[in-house]
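User: Protein folding is very new to me. Would you mind checking the protein record under this note? It all follows right here:
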Amino acid sequence: MKRLLISLAILSILLISCQNQELPLPVVKTLAKQEPSNHSSIEVAQGPDAEGEYVTMRTQLGYATKSGGIHPDAYREIDAKIRALEEAGLEIEKANELRGMLEKLKIGEEAPIAPQDMKYLIVFPGWNTTTAVTWHYRDGIWVPTATPPQCDEPFIFQTPVDLDLATAILYPGQYRGGDFKPHGGFRTDKTEGPVEVRSPIEGYIWRVAKFTDDYGIHYMFDIQHQCGIMVRLGHLAKVPPKMEAIFDDFPIRSKYDSRTELVEPFFVSLGEVIATDTQLGTGFDWGAYDLRKENEASKDPNFRKAHSDEGEQAYHALCWLDLLPQEDRAIVKGLPAADGKSGKKSDYC
């Protein structure tokens, strides 16, 4: 499967239809990469190639000017890219021309509207959105690409690993290694041989990462159920061939470059094997998220302030230990905590 590349050279249109009115809002937005804060999302060519990027941006801004509006995220992204082009050697007159065109555009409303109050159609060039409903984080809320189906209540996950192999639990919503971790995970330290990881939900892989570090290759999958439940599974060392094919057109990442990539939705069945082994066979990360609404922890002003830069996950993460099949809950909660400092302390459980 080829990864989806959407650059500033492609216009994406977001149409928001409310119950009794339609409010078309043109959007120019880069969607291909979502990166951690220590990585820059703006990359421009140097020297003569900066001139080519200027021509492309000028053309696309011209199209946007005719349509009259731009999404706030797109405005910030383009402004940052203009600055980057200046640093790459673009003439100041040309940079000012681009900035002038950008400033003529009307910026769309930033105030979030609850997803249940509207229907969304997000058009991704080259992406057949009719095959799946996927959710994307915009302006502080997760929004679906179409009207989603209803979730089962309560939503029950399939346990992703054989509990006979599990030795300890990483609890979601705790500090580990000096950083807050919305996700939890399983340890399988005493296991001899490979550890299979199965998808806890039926859904679509839509965002992935593949990188290396001193321990080898890491795979990460974000899988979304169309109703608005998402899981993230990481520190996977080996994946089946059909999963490996997702990465066929990926660039070679340097060590510790854990940037994620959007991919065209790739369906996986409930319980399908998504990894044939974990990193060093010692365990894997698992986070679960309800994209439809924020969690109870996020209602605490102190928590909200402390994690305002990671609301995409921190405000939506779940205590998945309470959402396993009944026979597995007691087993999981009876396992020791894997983190020696935080123990079983959790903002979600």
About this structure: The chain has two domains: 12-144, 168-334.
